[in-house]
Design the sequence.
């Protein structure tokens, strides 16, 4: 075993500092001029300090970018705005000699693992992270990504201590908030869970807050919001069937719509694909009056329900003619000008009602006012000729209620949960 002897000279006299085993140091010392093949390079560590590196690679500023410890490997990524050079990647040989393929990339804003989707390659076409096993057998897997699945393994040890899988949000001021924690028994979600498709659960669901979804008879799902003591749909109704399963007549022709004195519905401009999921359907008041539009346990709100909503948002609201509130409209409207016409004055949506400007199908069957105004039927009948409806506009924060448009128009409908 070779040794390195260190000495220094002072006033013409050599002093010995001591000796140290070289291990693989000669390779590192000769790195600037080393050439040819090295059959084997090993680094053996003796430290028992888990925070003392066995091997380190540092950049020109003396910062560690790669380090090997007794318990694993750490790679430090520059979080400054340096593009791809501020990250870490593992690549593979490409099919041609002109390029290579990234397999695993860590940047300051993302981690990406690229896997070969070819089923012929089996597990080699995936990505896994494992740990040392207790015996000489197979290592324990922590994360396994295949073309058809992603698995995170959590387990209990012999002392019933559990490992966990966590999703953590980091704010701009570096505060951490756990959004989800999974252990071998339970999955805890502390953030908001938004579902686009079905949720299948094998065990019980325990809820501290509110599950903010409701479905109609056709399976359309709607977000809901609690405002005061009321629970409202936060989206416009889009069902084409009553809650007993019978179909609501769809009326496309303008003249036929104008002559209706029976229930009917339509899509704005008769364009289902563009408007169903954005603005919902439009119904005449005869459909509202069936009492079967909303899902079971929900109803079309009447004027009293709407006024309770307005008074919670604007306790000082006083009805003056058709004006129900001077400010509540801004708190009800979805913010921005993606759907509302500019300037969408005062819109904050701080209530969570998320009102959208679905427009109307007029009593003569024509369509108008989309992006300008939102109209919602009330279940209150003003008189034998007129139903009541409520309205918001792009150019103000006021809330209006009207009863001068008959029962023929096509308006949006929101549902309110029964008490």
Sequence:
């Amino acid at each position: 075993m070779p040794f390195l002897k260190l000495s220094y000279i002072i006033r013409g006299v050599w002093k010995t500092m001591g000796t140290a085993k070289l291990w693989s140091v000669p390779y590192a010392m000769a790195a600037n001029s080393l050439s040819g093949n090295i059959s084997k390079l090993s680094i053996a560590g003796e430290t028992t300090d888990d925070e003392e590196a066995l091997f380190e690679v540092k950049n020109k500023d003396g910062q560690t970018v790669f380090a090997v410890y007794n318990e694993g490997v750490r790679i430090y990524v520059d979080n400054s705005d340096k593009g791809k050079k501020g990250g870490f990647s593992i690549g593979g040989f490409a099919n041609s000699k002109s390029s290579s393929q990234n397999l695993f990339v860590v940047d300051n804003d993302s981690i990406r693992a690229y896997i070969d989707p070819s089923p012929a390659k089996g597990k080699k076409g995936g990505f896994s992270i494992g740990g040392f096993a207790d015996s000489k057998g197979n290592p324990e897997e922590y994360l396994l990504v295949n073309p058809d699945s992603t698995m995170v393994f959590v387990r209990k040890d012999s002392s019933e201590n559990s490992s966990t899988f966590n999703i953590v949000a980091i704010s701009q001021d570096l505060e951490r908030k756990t959004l989800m924690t999974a252990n071998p028994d339970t999955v805890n979600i502390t953030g908001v869970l938004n579902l686009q498709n079905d949720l299948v659960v094998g065990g019980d669901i325990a809820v501290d807050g509110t599950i903010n979804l409701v479905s109609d008879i056709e399976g359309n799902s709607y977000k809901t919001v609690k405002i005061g003591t009321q629970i409202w749909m936060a989206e416009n109704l889009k069902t084409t069937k009553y809650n007993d399963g019978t179909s609501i007549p769809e009326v496309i022709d303008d003249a036929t719509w104008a002559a209706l004195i029976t229930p009917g519905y339509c899509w704005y401009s008769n364009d289902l694909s563009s408007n169903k999921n954005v603005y919902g359907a439009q119904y005449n008041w005869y459909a509202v009056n069936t009492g079967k539009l909303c899902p079971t346990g929900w109803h079309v709100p009447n004027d009293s329900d709407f006024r309770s909503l307005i008074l919670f948002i604007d306790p000082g609201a006083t009805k003056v003619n058709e004006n129900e509130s001077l400010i509540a409209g801004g708190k009800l409207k979805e913010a921005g000008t993606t759907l509302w016409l500019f300037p969408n004055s005062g819109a904050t949506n701080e209530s969570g009602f998320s009102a959208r400007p679905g427009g109307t199908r007029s009593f003569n069957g024509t369509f108008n006012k989309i992006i300008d105004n939102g109209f919602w039927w009330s279940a209150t009948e003003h008189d034998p000729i007129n139903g009541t409806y409520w309205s918001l506009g792009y150019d103000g924060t006021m809330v209006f209620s009207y009863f001068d448009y008959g029962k023929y128009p096509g308006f949006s409908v929101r549902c309110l949960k029964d008490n």
